[in-house]
């Protein structure tokens, strides 16, 4: 991420992938809107871009790194449907400040750049905070059983693990299994540009379902 002239940080990747992700969110999110929690908002570019195109959704951006919160606020300064960014580490025992019955949860590019324990915490938190029938939308690169992993993703995985042995691309089957344990049903996977996926889970009516 690079800095602009004000508090806004800039991620070239976030600018590249925001439109393909948004197209899917527009299709997947109910048109009546509701409250959406974005976990790991980073610079805040996705929050600004997507909330503008989803005016019926109240967008709650968040991140574990308090230093990026001013950037999120600056990117979203003119967006009436964006709430003040929340300081949220998914690994925290409770998610203070997060409404109890979210209508959607969106998280891009976190699972591979955090320890697996944090991924599990994200799924458990989604299970606790999403209302039944509400979607969890996870974007990023994943490894799929029986599908050759793209060379660019293999290189990315090696680079991540060299930076931090606890990081790395996650196996879709592991994410799906952990999600089920958290009360989230796998619904579909959508192929997005640059070998990324958007995974769609639904909060089951029965947490054990
Ligand atoms: C690669 S950036 C992704 C930013 C943005 N979602 C995007 O796709 O452009 C990963 C973000 O995850 C945040 N993060 C890392 N661990 C976290 C955790 N345990 N809880 C919440 N956010 C976390 C980092 O602070 C960083 O902003």
């Amino acid at each position: 991420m690079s800095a602009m002239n004000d508090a806004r940080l800039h991620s070239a990747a976030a600018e590249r992938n925001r439109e393909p992700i948004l197209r899917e969110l527009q299709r997947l999110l109910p048109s009546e809107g509701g409250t959406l929690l974005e976990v790991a908002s980073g610079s805040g570019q996705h929050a600004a871009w997507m909330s503008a195109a989803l005016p019926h959704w109240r967008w709650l951006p968040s991140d574990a790194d308090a230093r990026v919160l001013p950037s999120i606020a600056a990117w979203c300064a003119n967006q009436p449907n964006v709430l003040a960014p929340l300081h949220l580490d998914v690994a925290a025992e409770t998610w203070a400040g997060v409404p109890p019955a979210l209508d959607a949860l969106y998280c891009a590019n976190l699972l591979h750049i955090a320890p697996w324990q944090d991924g599990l915490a994200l799924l458990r938190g989604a299970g606790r905070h999403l209302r039944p029938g509400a979607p969890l939308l996870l974007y990023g690169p994943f490894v799929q059983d029986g599908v050759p992993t793209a060379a660019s993703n293999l290189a990315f995985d090696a680079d991540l693990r060299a930076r931090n042995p606890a990081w790395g691309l996650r196996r879709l089957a592991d994410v799906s299994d952990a999600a089920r344990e958290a009360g989230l049903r796998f619904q579909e996977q959508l192929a997005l540009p640059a070998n990324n996926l958007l995974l769609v889970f639904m909060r089951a009516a029965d947490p054990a379902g």
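Residues 11, 14, 39-42, 46, 63-65, 68, 88-91, 108-110, 113-114, 118 surround S-adenosylmethionine (CB under 6 Å). The radius of gyration is 16 Å.
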